[in-house]
Amino acid sequence: MSACVEAPGYTRRSGAGLPWRHGSAFVLIAVLHLAALAALLHARRQSAPKPVPRTMMVSFIAAAPAPVEAPAPKPPAPTRPKAKLAPKMVATPRPSPTPMSTPPITPPVAAPQLQMPPAPAPAASPPVTTPPDFVAAYLDNPGPKYPAASIRLREEGVVMLLVQVSADGRAEQVTVDRSSGHARLDEAAVEVVRKRWRFVPAKQGDRAVPAWVRIPMSFALHQH
């Protein structure tokens, strides 16, 4: 840049145009900066390496050949067994039969006869035994006397007596085989049979024998 020297008389005029010059300088500087920036960007674009296109390698693989099946082995031919030779039979001489001696024949001896004992006579059957009888009409055995206390207390029941009858038809022993549940009734039954009853004795065949008999004795209030 060249400097301009003005005469002193023009100083005042020159001072009035200084602001415009300063503004132009600023504009020029800005334009230069923009141009430099644009040139720099353009240079970078030009210098940047272009992208190299990628190439794809495609290779085709041939399919594996199918396995070849080997032929199946042939079965071995059957071998025929060798025929065995039968052993030769050697004939052996048969022994000559020797004559058998016959023993002397003896006549049979008769066996002695056994004498069987006579059969025993059948045993006689035992005579039939009949039990004692106490219900015959001609015996006229009375009933027991109903105790007054039992009537008042309304005691009832059946007494089972076990009686031994002698050969002459009397009660030798009288016991209570099953109680009526009331002692007074049991005692009344025992007393009347022991003192006042008569029996037809048991018979073994035609002979009278002693025997036991059971007698039921009933006590009921509706009978009195």
Automatic annotation (TrEMBL):
The keyword Transmembrane helix applies. Its main location: membrane. Residues 68-127 are annotated as: Disordered. InterPro entries: TonB, TonB-dependent_transducer, TonB/TolA_C, TonB_C. It is a single-pass membrane protein. Residues 131-224 form the TonB C-terminal domain. It is found in: Cell inner membrane. The keyword Nucleus does not apply. PANTHER family: PROTEIN TONB, PROTEIN TONB-RELATED. Belongs to the TonB family. This is Protein TonB. It comes from Solimonas terrae.
